[in-house]
Every structure is written in C-alpha cells, then in structure tokens.
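Hi! If you just cloned this repository, the fastest way to understand the data is to look at a raw example. We've pasted two of them here, unedited. The first protein comes first, obviously.
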Amino acid sequence: MQPAALQERAMITVSGQDAQEFLQALITTDLDLLEDGEAKPGALLTPQGKILFDFIVTRDGTSIRLETGTDQAEALLKRLTMYKLRAPISLALTNPARVTVRFEAAPGAYRDARFAKAGQTVYRAYDTEGETAGTDDYDRLRILNGIAVSGADYALQDAFPHDVLMDKNGALSFKKGCYVGQEVVSRMQHRGTARRRVVIVAAGTALPETGTPLTAKGRSIGVLGSVIGSSGLAIVRIDKAGDAIASGEQILAGDIAVTLTLPAWTGLDFPVEAGEESA
C-alpha cells in the first residue's frame, strides 16, 4: 500500500519544562507510558466524561504534539490556553498540518498505537513531502480493524471514551491519577456499565450512507459510521445487538441485512443476556 496524505489535520505543539506535567493532568493518555517513536490516541473530556476533543499524541524532543482535526484545532487551542494560566509552557498551532500515513517504517515516522493493538503496522509522518496515494487503503484498513474516528463515526461531546474503544486502545488511563472527566470513565470501567461499542459491519452488497440507522426487531440499536463498499463501522448498543444475534433476528442497515462483529483485538463479546457485557 502506498503512503496516503490525510486531509484536514492540524497540530498543536506544547513546549516548555512543564509540558508533560501540564498535559498529564488534563488528557486521558498516560504520557509516562508514551515512548519515543510512538503515536498514541488521546482525548480531552468534558467534566461529564464525554469526548470534547480527540487527537493523536507524539513526542518531538522535549515537546509534546497533539495531532487533531482542523475543525477542532482552534477550540482545542483555546481550551488549553484557558488551562495554561501561568504554567511555564508555550502553545503553538499549525493549521493545516501535513500528515502522511505509511505502512512501513520510515525515518522520523511514529508507529500508530491504535493499529498496533490490532496487529497492524501503520506509521504517521509529519512535514514530509513526496508522492502519496488516496486514503482508501488506509480507511479500509481502519474499518476492518474497528478503529473509529470522530466526525465519520461519532460526534464530539456525544460519545464516551468506552463507546469508541479508548479503554482498549491505550488512549484511556485508569492508573495515572486525576484528569478532566476521570471520575466518570473510571466509574464506567469498574462498574462495567459500557453498553455502546464500535462494531464492524459487513453486508452482501454496498452499505447505505453514513448516518443510516441500524435496527433489530424494528428498533434502533445504533448508527452506521464510516463506509467503504460493503464494509463499515457503527457504534451500537451491544446488549441489544447481542439479543438479536442470540435470537436469530435480522439486523438491518436501512433495508440491507448486515452482520456485526466486535473487533477481535478488544477481547469483547456480545452479551449473552441483556444488560451483561463480557470482556
């Protein structure tokens, strides 16, 4: 697969002697576990525990960079500036930023930890030039491995981190201490109350467009997200999906019959009975 240039990406660079300490108390990612050459997912949550902004985190020397969507960048910068107060750090925005996805190692590229969890090799490179292909191969690989992105698969301020598998892909820490929204996501984790999850959707024909409801027994169980051909992603109520699967009920995307699969790398299963989730 050829390198793919991602569109509408931006970069916020946090520099200064307290850059890591500043972000560690705000975002979901445990920066103590962020290795050089690694790109890890993360988020800044609302106090109610929903995803306010999402991003990919990397180190650049002593600085920490947050790669995010251009539609989020200005608001994320403003929010970080609000938290900054007199901390000895600086914030710099590059919007848009050049982001290239590669499928083999290259000097200066960062391995994407989301794909690594799924056993796939994907790297992110910044400020690189050269010929790039379209993003179809990247999006297809992302869909087939259950890796959701905001915008296409979920709306910001509407999803909890568990909904989009951040508890499984390294984006969410339950050990580093307090950060914004930490109490809510910790409670969801320890009580096992996560009911919405990303699933891989497959059909025998082309799937309908993003935003199409998924239904079982005539009732909505989720909404279709990213789609390429007959494959897609959706965030669904896995208890309701599990009931439908166990009883042999057809699941539909619009009027097209589909099958749902939880990404194998998560270790999740559809509940056998309503209200139960196993991991």
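Ok, and the second one:
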Amino acid sequence: MTNSTAPATGPAPWTGLVPVDDTALAATDTGGPGLPVLYLNGQFATQGYWRRVLADLGPGLRHITYDERARGRTSKRSADYSFEAAVRDVDAVLAARGVRRALLVGWSYGAFVAAHWASRNPGRAVGAVLVDGALPYDWLTEELERRIRTQFRRWAPLMALARPTGLTPRMTHRQMSESNIELGRIGSAAALGPVLDAITVPTRYVIASGTSLGSKGDEQELIRAALPAVTARNPHIRISAKVPSNHGAILKKDFRAIADAVREVTALDALNAPDRPATGR
C-alpha cells in the first residue's frame, strides 16, 4: 500500500492475484513513483495486448494491468460476469495496489468500464482514454441478439481449443454471448449518453476505422458517427485521433496514438496539480 510515508521511489514492481468477490484477478503493477495508469482490456482480451502502449510510454508512469474474471491463463472463474462486476473490479484492483487516483485507459469493452468508473468517481479519476469503445448507439436488435448467440455457439469448439493458452476466456459460449448482448444494452444512446454527459475529467477518444469481429458492412462506422454529438455536449471529452487500423488491430498498429492520448491527459493532470490537495493521489 502507498501512503504519505512511502519512499520517493514508490512501490516495487508486483505481479500476483487480487481477490475480489468469489474470484481472483491476475494483475501486474510496474511500481515506481509515476502517475498510476490502469488499463482495461477488451471483452475477452488479456493484459498482454497493452505491451506496445506500455513500451511506448516507458517507465515514467506506473502501469497497472489485469485480466478480468476467467480471462487469461490465471484469473479465476466467477459466478458473476456482469458489467457491474467489471466496474467493481476496478475498485478492487486499485485498492489492492494502494491507489486512490488513477488515469483509466480502456479498449473496446474496457472503454465502457472506464467511462462508467470515471463518471461515477470524478474525485478519483485523473481522466480517461477510451479506445474505440464507449460509443452511444442503438445497435442491438432482436435479430442481432440471435446472430450473436449463433456466432458464439459456432465458435465454441475453436475457443475451447485455444482456452489452455489464455487466448479465450474460461466461460461458456452462453456466458460470452450474454455478456456481449448486455454490452449492447449498456451502449445504447439512452443508457450510455447520460454516463458520458456526466464525465467531468479530461477524456480522450482514439477511434479506429472499418470493422470489428462479428460486424458487417459499415456497422462500426455508423456507431462511431455518434461521437461528435457527445463531444459537442461535453467539453471535457475530445477526439484525440482517428486511426487507420480496424478495431481488432488498433492496440498493435496504432499504439502510438493511444500513448499520445495518455500523455495528453497526464500533462493536463500535471498542469492542475497545484490546485489539488496534497493527498490527492
């Protein structure tokens, strides 16, 4: 745990399990005295996806990554894979690492988690970087729900083969499809719009181009087209970059744009540091 008597060098690097509810999450903390940055993965992705972003940002920041419930090779299974559980897990990881204030960086599903947490915790959120996610749009239909369930059922044998490597979660295809459908409801304009409107900390979007896994035609671009209305309503939210890579490749091919958005928000935090209480971090 960090406190006012911690050495100037900050906490030592750490890797281990963070207990929460009925499960435990595999987490890594690079330590050091820098601003804590918490990275939130895509819905079925792992913390390793962030390695290029972390390398580009370097050791000046304190990077904290973790695998969500039943993701990766080490995080344990749970009876609860809901979105609200994912938001609660942010608090569990930060508390376990002794962090009060953090910058949240989320990709895809993780962007929704970051947006909700930043909206609910304005005194603790340094800011948020939302990578091709948390875009309010009514994309979920009954026909698409059926399509999602069918896709995950068809993918189940392949996902089972990849499961020992940690590339797919230790969840049933029904659990994964229901998680995806829940995200569609959370991402509707009526549900997500007020969350984004309530954000009062610097928030930057990095958005991709083209398709994502399971999307068809221009579905993804239609969803992204809803973002300018969000930035028009809330001056705390801006688009940092629209990059050429698609949704699935953005962390690999356009990691520099993501790292630049992180730098932009951390610079704003440093600028505002004199106005914060000494115990702000």
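That's it. A detail worth noticing about the second one: Residues 1-7 have pLDDT under 50 and may be disordered.
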